[in-house]
Specification:
Layout: H1 4-16, H2 20-34, H3 37-51, H4 67-90, H5 94-101, H6 107-115, H7 124-133, H8 138-161, H9 167-197, H10 201-205, H11 208-212, H12 228-237, H13 244-256
Helix pairs in contact: 1-2, 2-3, 3-4, 4-5, 4-6, 7-8, 8-9, 9-12, 9-13
């Protein structure tokens, strides 16, 4: 890769010779290699404007463009946003990447990019904030919240933050919440039975309704295997679920309750 002085000299020579496209190629390659994505974005913008016959830098004066040129400019700028934002995500610069991804109209592509993030203890809060707090990838973010921050935080988030979202999004989160609590309770009940009756392979395959059937001793002295306030909240939220399998799980949770 060229040193800064060599790069400047080469670019200056190309510009003096009117070889603008080659200058942009050199700068693009340099900034990609250096992972200087803000600078790369500026070069991509300059390339788009050069291809349209516009000044490389927007002067603040409206460009005299046809509707087709305006559409091309907007489309290619959004593509540049997506490219740079995705590259930033891949290097772990999540908040910076989200700045570029917010204008992108293809939300499926943005969601896929976020779902491919390698989540760890250092970045989990940042990922949850973008995926769920910004509603960029709600299912992925809510799953992280459940698994990393627990049922209580997930219920609180649902009750306080999801109300403004479209019904399909709220149903998606409600389904996840019910399924998570169902698994959690089934596992807890299964362990309790194994400790008292001896471990059996059938316990791992049994549904919650089957686990509690004919086992009244599970509830002696008001015994319970899950925070009862969580159970009550999840059953309330379950009323908006739209998956038949999830509704069956909610019914079993109610039977347990």
């Amino acid at each position: 890769m060229l040193e800064s002085g060599d790069l400047f000299d080469r670019i200056s020579t190309h510009i003096d010779q009117g070889r603008i496209a080659e200058s942009l190629d050199i700068l693009e390659g340099h900034f990609r290699h250096q992972q200087k994505f803000a600078e790369l974005f500026e070069i991509l913008k300059a390339r788009i404007r050069h291809d349209l016959g516009l000044p490389l830098i927007y002067s603040g004066i409206p460009d005299d463009l046809t509707s087709e040129q305006q559409q091309q400019l907007e489309t290619e700028l959004l593509q540049a946003c997506q490219e740079v934002g995705t590259a930033l995500l891949k290097t772990g610069r999540i908040a910076e990447g989200w700045i570029y991804l917010q204008p992108v109209s293809d939300r499926d592509e943005v969601q896929t990019a976020i779902e491919q993030l390698a989540v760890n203890d250092d970045n989990v809060d940042e990922v949850i904030e973008i995926a769920l707090g910004q509603w960029a990838a709600p299912a992925f973010g809510f799953r992280l919240l459940l698994n990393r921050r627990g049922t209580c935080n997930a219920i609180t988030f649902f009750d306080t933050q999801s109300f403004a979202q479209p019904e399909p999004i709220r149903q998606l989160l409600a389904n996840q919440l019910v399924e998570h609590v169902y698994r959690e309770l089934s596992d807890n009940v299964g362990r309790c039975i194994a400790e008292n009756e001896g471990a059996t392979d059938s316990l791992e395959q049994a549904r919650l309704a089957g686990l509690i059937r004919d086992r009244g001793w599970l509830f002696e002295e008001c015994g319970h295997h899950l925070d009862v306030t969580h159970l009550a909240a999840v059953l309330r939220i379950a009323r908006i679920c739209d998956r038949s399998s999830t509704l069956e799980q909610a019914l079993e949770l109610a039977q347990y309750g």
